[in-house]
């Protein structure tokens, strides 16, 4: 039998976890996840969990895909590693680059490969500054991002991100990064229609550009739908207006598609759904469904032309840029997404079903409002329900109702994330309608348990 306690003690003694309160971990012991199949996980005590978070927004094709493990095994036997520096290449990396360009919107021609989403965003910081250097405008240095964004944990990734807690640790942001407000209608759009608020939020970008001077601004970066910030879905007017502003001032538009890419919103890339025409796209996670680490940057022709035709060497790259095993995993993952028509399914079948399930959850007395986009959804826990999101009364933050609710979820077999009092999911794209119903039923029961706690 499995000795969970022994693993928890070793874990607490030696393993420093990301974003974890280690004192609490030591007292309670980490949950030990040992196996996955489809949309379900099992812990070391044999408890089954439905994974509402796709691991960490990444296991798009679900767990237990032997065709991916076989592709990885075959590649390891043939060529486990070679680099792509100094005029060398490898076959899976070349095929993956070509395939990604074929899947991407027509303005893309090239791919730069990395090991993670954070490295992809670091690459973007260096690449956009390099681009303006090559064009003879080296004073165009500033990259504008948004509050509450998450773009990774490296120095540049965490600087681009807009999370105050991250900036407070380690002297961030690095120079040349600015943040504007996020298009969060429920929090900031009081007294306006959603579409009117979308235009107001986009205008914050123009105000920032004018305050800095357009000739100082290199790029604007944003997630099509903000993920870790709480599944913040922008009004339909927001991205087209941001696009117009970027075009007006010649500023590069960057879509961080680390979460939204590879079908999450029912399109191959979230920017297609949102009416963006980005010059660069960062991706990771869903490109391999998390089976092996891989990330990268899709490079549009505008930037690629400067880098390839005019720039000479770009002094940048990672040992694992184009790792053959990761690329083999990605190729098989993309084949599965296509063969099972998972992207279309999200648009036509599973995404609408998840929306209906969350609309139903919104009738719970603890839920203020719910939203969804493709296979991402969120609901807000509130003290008093109101007719609109703006009319609800929130709980005092210090009560940590979201964390309480998340605990009930985990104890009762559903993994859901809490961002303050907003509960969010991003399930595997393979989740069936019956499994969505199973997840929603478990969520409802845990909302009941949480309501009982807050009443007590
Ligand atoms: N960008 C976004 C939008 C993300 O959600 C994440 C990770 O959650 C990252 C970047 C960073 O990716 P990674 O953790 O692979 O470095």
From TrEMBL:
InterPro entries: Aminotrans_3 (IPR005814), Aminotrans_3_PPA_site (IPR049704), PyrdxlP-dep_Trfase (IPR015424), PyrdxlP-dep_Trfase_major (IPR015421), PyrdxlP-dep_Trfase_small (IPR015422). Keywords: Aminotransferase, Pyridoxal phosphate, Transferase. The keyword Transferase applies. The keyword tRNA processing does not apply. GO terms for molecular function: transaminase activity. Gene3D superfamilies: Aspartate Aminotransferase, domain 1, Type I PLP-dependent aspartate aminotransferase-like (Major domain). Coiled coil: none annotated. CDD domains: OAT_like. Its cofactor is pyridoxal 5'-phosphate. Belongs to the class-III pyridoxal-phosphate-dependent aminotransferase family. This is Aspartate aminotransferase family protein.
